[in-house]
Amino acid sequence: MWPLIVSAITFVLVLGGALLGTNLRRVLSTDHLRDDVKDVVRLSSGLIGTIAALVLGLLIASAKTSYDARVTQFKQVTANVILLDLLLEQYGPDAKNLRATLRVGIPIIVERITSEGLAGKTTPFETTSEAQRFVSRIQELKPNSEAQHALQVRIINAAIQVTQSRLALYTQSHDSIPVPFLTILIFWLSIIFTSFGLFVRAGPIVIGTFVVGALSVAGALFLILEMNQPFAGMFRISTETLSNALAPLAN
Question: Are 67 and 235 in contact (CB under 8 A)?
Answer without folding.
Answer: yes
